[in-house]
Amino acid sequence: MPRFLLFAGLALLLACNNSVPEFDGQRSFAYLEKQVAFGPRVPGSEAQKACAEWLVDELGQYADRVVVQSFNHKDKHSGRMIPMKNIIASFNNKPRLKRIMLAAHWDSRPRADQDKLENQHKPIPGANDGASGVAVLLEIARALKKQPLSYGVDIVLFDGEDYGREGELDEYFIGARYFAENIGKYRPQYGILLDMVGDAQLSLPVEYNSVRAAPHVVKKVWDTAERLGYTAFEKRMGPAISDDHIPMIEAGIPFIDIIDFAYPDQGHAYWHTLQDTPDKCSPQSLKTVGQVLLHVLYEEEQ
Ligand SMILES: [Zn+2]
């Protein structure tokens, strides 16, 4: 082979190694629909059990290791023990590697307390609030298998994020709290949480607690989105939101939350109601978030 062709070939090979995989929004949306089809993934329900099995199977096809962190939560009102599961999928488990953590909650809220009175005791479908973040992370898992990174990534699906009654924060973020309390020596360089990222009218202002805890990660993500032209990531300050990133920040991990709390658009009409269904979400919104994350992950290598 003439020398210039060899160099051209090498250059091409290097370019391929550094390329960022394409995020498949349709496939990710199918993951969202699949979760909703199980029924509300309320801790302790049959739907929760079935969905957990499916998530473990699905992640098992892509990750190097999947671990289920099972525990019981004592419901403070009924006194019942509620089984919960954090699902942890790890990629590239070689020792002493830098690691990055990605997270989302996979449970759905047991009560539609923002809905009209007769619906308030019913569990929500959780298409956006729950399934959307997981749907993005499953598609990222597929990309990580196809084109492995040189460092480690851990995808953690938290249970029990949305279990608490309105105003009773001690029964929110149950899975994330349990994970943080049992974190041991695990120290990812930083973490990114996805929550409510499927809204067809996506708008992602910067979340206040994230910028306080990890301004460099916020900058990296929002700069990447800006460079790629994804205007849903807005460089303005949004509200402070209590979410699964808080226990992780308290455990000393720089952690940000990518969240669109306005659902849809300005108000919260679908939030914590029976209206939180797949038709309010879109493949394009999942792609926006997923593609930005893939760029962040694969550009870490360069
Ligand atoms: Zn919620």
From TrEMBL:
Is Cytoplasm among this UniProt entry's keywords? no
GO MF assignments: glutaminyl-peptide cyclotransferase activity; zinc ion binding
- UniProt xrefs under Pfam families: Peptidase_M28
- The Peptidase M28 domain covers 86-296
* Domain of life according to the entry: Bacteria
Provide the alphabetized UniProt keywords: Acyltransferase, Transferase
Is Kinase a UniProt keyword of this protein?
no
Q: What are the transmembrane regions?
A: none
PROSITE patterns of this UniProt entry?
PROKAR_LIPOPROTEIN
Protein name, please?
M28 family peptidase
